[in-house]
Amino acid sequence: MAHADTPLHANTPCSPQDVDAFLNEAETLVARRGLKMTRIRRKVLRLLLESPEPAKAYDLLDNLDGEGSAKPPTIYRALDFLQETGLAHKIESLNAYVACGHASHNHSAVFLICNSCNAAEELHATSTNKALRAETEAAGFTMTRAVIEVRGTCRDCAA
Ligand SMILES: [Zn+2]
Ligand SMILES: [Zn+2]
Ligand SMILES: [Zn+2]
User: Fold this and answer.
1) Binding residues for Zn(2+), per the UniProt record (predicted)?
2) Measured in angstroms, how far is the CA atom of residue 38 from the centroid of ligand 2?
C-alpha cells in the first residue's frame, strides 16, 4: 500500500483508500440524499482525491481533460456541491480544496495545515464539533458549515 508512505493530507483516512471504491461510496452517500453525482462532480472529486496537497480550482480546471467545455463556473458549482454534501472542504487560507474521507460520520473539519509544506491533515475533533454546535445554537445561529484552520508545523517538517 503506497498510502502509508504518502505525505499527510486530508484524504480518505476513514473511507476506502482505493479511489474508485471511494467514489462509489460517495455516489451511494449522495444518492441516499436524493442527489445526483454527475460526471463532472465525480471527476472533480477524483482530482481532489488524487491531489497530493489541497487543490486550487484553476489546477482542477487544467486537469479536467476530456471535459473540455468545463469553465470556471462549472468547477465552482461542482465544488459547492461537494462541500454541501460533505465530500470536500475548502481551506480558505490556502484558497484550495480537499476531499473529505469522513463524510459519512460526524466530525468537524479541523485542519492542521503545515506552514512549510502546505500539507493539510483533517482531525475528527468530535468534542470540538459538539462544543461548537452547542455554542452556535446557544447564540441562535444556524450553522451550515465550519472549517477550522490550525497553522503550524507537521510531523514530517518538524523531524
Ligand atoms: Zn471532513
Ligand atoms: Zn473519519
Ligand atoms: Zn510539513
Assistant:
1) 114, 117, 154, 157
2) 24
State residue 9 phi and psi, 5-degree precision: -150, 180
Give the span between the Cα atoms of 61 and 76, in whole angstroms. 10
Q: Identify the structural domains of the chain with CATH numbers, from first to last.
A: 8-158 (1.10.10.10)
Q: How far is CA 81 from the centre of its chain?
A: 12
Q: Give the model's pLDDT for residue 108.
A: 80
DSSP type of residue 55? B
pLDDT (tens digit per residue) in 11-32: 446 777 789 999 999 999 999 9
Q: How far apart are CA 121 and CA 141, in angstroms?
A: 28
To the question of whether residue 100 is assigned a binding role by annotation, the answer is: no
Tell me, in angstroms, the distance from the centre of ligand 2 to residue 146's CA. 16
Q: What mean pLDDT do residues 93-111 have?
A: 88
- 39-50 and 19-32 are packed helices; what angle lies between their axes, rounded to 10 degrees? 140
Read off the pLDDT of residues 37-74 as tens digits, 9 standing for 90 and up: 999 999 999 999 998 889 999 889 888 866 656 678 88
